Amino acid sequence: MRTVLIGDSHLARLRRELQTLPGEVRNVAEGGASARDLLRQADAVGLHGSDSVVMSVGTNDAAPWKRVPVSEFVQTLSMFVASHSPRGWVFVAPPGVVEGRSTRARDRTNAVIDEYRLAVIEVCEAVGGHLVRTDLLLESLGAQAFAEDGVHLNGTGYRVLVPAIKSVCGALQ
User: Fold this and answer.
1) Contact assessment for residue 102 and residue 152, using Cβ atoms and an 8 Å cutoff
2) Does pLDDT of 93 surpass 80?
3) What is the pTM of this model?
4) Burial, 38: exposed, middle or buried (Cβ in 10 Å; 0-12, 13-18, 19+)?
5) CB-CB contact of 25 with 5 (8 Å)
6) Is the dihedral of CA 69, 70, 73, 74 positive or negative?
7) Organism's domain of life (predicted)?
8) What domains does the chain contain, in order, with CATH numbers?
9) Gyration radius from the chain CA atoms
């Protein structure tokens, strides 16, 4: 059995923490990835029916320079999960951002990311997936869970997120 991580940098940045996840772990998540990249990532790793798939998308889809329309995001995500039948899906909902730390004039906002988070929740429920509500897990930490850029998680954030992912993946084994 494998635990396969796909999607964006919220998973791509996991290194040392991978050894705590169950089974053989394959991480093909990439910084900057959006829902449009999931099929390519899944093909690269060759998803199996015995795999547990951990997926994180939405943060980059919400970026003004990508701005994948929410309707396209839902359609792409839905078509992707319909085209694969792993042991289980684990959806890692976008955590949001620390808006005051952005160095770009126009960057992601929590209001826009909320739309993508709701779409992730909708697709997760439709396919009977398991949801990790990153935003709720990190709520008490606030900005302390994020790196200086306000987008990526830091060690504090991952110390909360990784055990939640591990718990859900363990239940799928």
Assistant:
1) no
2) yes
3) 0.94
4) buried
5) yes
6) negative
7) Bacteria
8) 2-172 (3.40.50.1110)
9) 15
For 23-28, the CB contacts below 8 A with 24+ separation are: 23/52, 23/173, 26/2, 28/4
- For residue 53, give the 3-state DSSP assignment: strand
What the block records as the tokens of 65 is 């320079």
Q: Which residues pair with 6 in a beta bridge?
A: 55
* 7-21, 97-111, 123-137, 140-154, range with the lowest pLDDT: 97-111
Q: Environment class of residue 111 by beta-carbon count within 10 Å: exposed (0-12), middle (13-18) or buried (19+)?
A: exposed
pLDDT for the residue 32: 96
CA distance 11 to 13: 5
**Nearest-angstrom CA–CA distance, 161 and 153:** 9
CA 86 from centroid of its chain's CA atoms: 17
Residue 16 above 90 pLDDT?
Answer: no
Whether residue 59 contacts residue 8, with contact meaning beta carbons closer than 8 Å, is answered with: yes
Query: Are 40 and 62 a contacting pair, CB within 8 Å?
Result: no
